[in-house]
Each structure stands twice: as C-alpha cells, then as structure tokens.
Amino acid sequence: MSHKLPEEIAEQAREYLAKYVVRKDELKPKERINIPSQEMPAQDPIERGKNLKEVTLGFTAEQARLEAMRCLQCVKNTCVADCPVGIDIPGFIKQIADGDFQGAVDIIKQTSLLPSICGRVCPQESQCQEHCKVGAALKDVDKGVAIGRLERFVADWERASGNVKVPNVKPSTGKKVAVVGSGPAGLVVAADVRREGHNVTIFEAFHKMGGVMRYGIPEFRLPNDIIDQEIDTLRKMGVEFQTNFVVGRTRKLTDLINKDGFDAVFVGTGAGLPYFMGIEGENLVGVFSANEYLTRANLMRAFDKDNSNTPIYSSRNVAVLGGGNVAMDAARMALRLGAEKVYVIYRRTENEMPARKEEIEHAKEEGIEFHFLQNAKRIIGDEDGRVIAMECLRYELGEPDSSGRRRPVEVPNSEFKIIVDTVLVSIGNGSNPLISQTTPEMVVNKWGNIIVDETQKSSVEKIYAGGDIVLGAATVILAMGEGRRAAAAINEQLEKELNKNADL
Questions:
Q1: C-alpha span between 165 and 442 (Å, rounded)
Q2: Structure pTM?
Q3: What architecture is the 176-272+430-503 domain classified under in CATH?
Q4: Looking at the domain covering 6-161, what would its CATH class be?
Q5: pLDDT, tens digit (0-9, with 9 covering 90-100), for 380-423
Q6: What does each C-alpha distance from 25 to 28, 70, 194, 325 come to in angstroms?
Q7: Domains of the chain: which residue ranges?
Q8: pLDDT tens digits for 120-157?
C-alpha cells in the first residue's frame, strides 16, 4: 500500500503512460507484464485511524489506463469464469486502456449494477484475479491486473460525471415480485427482474436500505453515499421500497403470494444471527457480537456523537475474537471510536486467516496488534459485572480439518491473561430462524439455511432464495451471483405464465 500523495503517484503514472500509450495496441505480452502494477493511494495510517473517511482514495485516470494496459486480453478468459456474475472483464479493461471510461462502465452494467460496491469489497484475489496470467507470470497474485480497482475507478468516474445511466426497463407485464431483504442478492434480483418489466417491491426490516453493506461494512471501506446512489438507480427504474417491514412478523412469507398477490418472492435476508463461543463471562457488560457493534456504529451512526443518540460502549483496551473480514472491520472501528489498544485474537496463524489480505495489512498499518495461535478461555469481570480481563490459551497447528486449514490444538497449561475492558466476538453468523419458523413448509438444513435447487428455487412454490440465507456468511459478489441465477429463474417462470395466459 502506497502512502505517497495522489499527485506524486499520478506524475509517476503519467511518465509511464507517455512511454506506452502510443504503442498500446502493439505491446507484446512481455512488455505488458513489465508495466509496473499501480499502487492504490490511501490516507496516512495514523490519520485515518481517527476518522471514518474512506481509507483508499482510488486510482487516478493515468493509473487506471496504465494498469489496464497490463491486461493480456487472454483467449481463455479465466477472470470471467472466476467472476460469480460473469462480467466481461477483458472487454471493460480494454475500454479503460483506450480511454473510453463510459464504454467500460456500460460493459460492466450489462451484468452488474453495483460496480462501485464490488470494486471496493469483493475479494478479487480469490476470485477474478486469482488465475490472472500476469500475476502467474510474476508469481504473485497481488501483481495480477487490479480488476477490482479498475472497476471501482470507472464506476466512481461515472458517478462524479453526474450522468449515471439508468438501465432500460421493458414495458409493464403486470406481474409482481417481492424481494425480501435489500442486501446485495436482493438488489441484483430487483434490478434483473425489473429490467424485464415486472413490478418489484423490496421489503427491508431496517429503516434504511442496503442490508449487510450498510450495517456490516464500515464507511471507511464502503461509504454510505455510494450505497444510496446505487439504490437510487433502482428507484429510478421504478423499484418500490418498504422499510421497517419484517417478513415473518409484519407479514408471513407465504402471505405475500396468497394474500398480497405477488407472483414470485425472493428471500435474501442474509445471515445476521451471531455465534458466540459459549465460554464463561460472555454475559458480562463489555462483551458484544461484532455484528451488534458494527450495526450500532454503521447503520445507527453511533460514531457521530454530536448528531446521534445511539449508545456505544466506551473502550480503552479491546480484544476482537476471530480472523475474518468482520473481525477486521470491528477492530478498525474500535480504533476509530477511541480505543487505545486493539488486539485481534486468532487461534490459527495469519496464513489461515479468511480475511482479505488488504484488510489485514490496513489493520496492521493502523496499529492493531495481532495475537496468533491464541484464543479466549474465559472472560473475567469485576464486582459490577464489567469486563476487566480475558484468560487465553495458546495453540499449535495440527492436521487439516474439514475446511482444509490446519486444526488448532490447545497447548496444555498455557493459560495467560490480557487486560481488556471490551471483547468483540466475531466467529461467524447463522441464519435468522424467523422465516423458517413462520414458514414450516420451507426446507432448511441443520444450520437454518434455506435449501434451494440449481435455479435458487426453494421447496415452496414460487419462492426463491439466495445469498447468505442459503450460503451462510459469504461475500457480496457470491450473493450477487446467486441473485442473478434467481432472477433468471423468476423471469423464466413469469414469462411462461404470461405466454400461457396469452394462449387462453
């Protein structure tokens, strides 16, 4: 990660661009591979640890074109195959190399309406970028073509131009589709179904749209105004929204079809039920799920103390239990909320951490301490029931478990204590049981995830599901991929019904 000023980075990129741009269509593969990969400008680590502004600042136009010229335009597009929504990646990258940024956005939006979001939070290093031939040639996946950063650049460019295109919507069919949940899967379904002329209503339990993108991902990674603008595009397409509507309580899921006349329903309610460790002291004051902590800070804006009445726990020394992206977000948010020390406690090594490498590096730069091969045994409180310390155990790695990662094995008699006043538990989430409990005919697995077929159809007629409610806690782009499959199946179902009615 570079800490140079954007002007310095742009100047360096301009020098290289002048060297290559005149021959950009004639460059040989070896020359493209030798073009230096572009560093992402970012806020100073110390300064950004005190504010909620976005950490990374985005490519300059010069950087974007230079990075795009690194693409080999392979005949076998592994990047497209590895993208859960199948974006024409070489196509939009070539447009960037040519300087046609609008053309690049138009190509992306044929497949995805959320490029500003995906460009920021998708784990490209384990998806579209993983098998990039440039990275393979340099023997470093991080040196592959920066697909996500290029996607972000053109999406931000379009938004800054003030001329965001609204996708075309076909004439009304009269068919109605309900989308339960406004996370990434739900938004994709809404867009793809609305394009075909069907009426779409999104039902959201919270008072604001965006699902996990709003309540789970901090603004320093994904600014809320970007979520708002992506949702505004759906509003301009004619999608309707109902907030504070808890399906399963406000209305049963099947009532949306049987009583409200919807022709199909998509369930994208996510996996927002946090797991706890079941250890002594988890009920003490100062112990929170990372989900609750982030929801208070993000959705309910507890960080904005001058303009928000949402309470947030005041902390000096914070321990975060877990090693995923949510753990990184919680740790970095605790720092921004005023904690003096933040520790990430993880029972494996850094190599096994599921969090994105970039997020781990950002956390380290900001001064967060990582304690590997350790885990909590019990949380200790004072006479008032408040956290004052945590007893931990040391671990070593054994044989691989079902996840393919080496199993952590407890080291006997290795107990030790650390002084903390807050513990944030981030060891995963399960599905909210509300819908399955109020829809007994819905078949779910032992974790409460809805079971679907290859088209995302559930066991209940006309009801489809996707995203974390099916996958368990996954990524934004994987949820979007499920949303695309579900939307295609819903559109096919409705088209058959329309054709059948036309034949009568």
A1: 39
A2: 0.92
A3: 3-Layer(bba) Sandwich (3.50)
A4: mainly alpha
A5: 999 999 999 999 999 999 998 887 889 999 999 999 999 999 99
A6: 9, 11, 39, 39
A7: 6-161, 176-272+430-503, 276-427
A8: 999 899 899 999 999 999 999 999 999 999 999 999 99
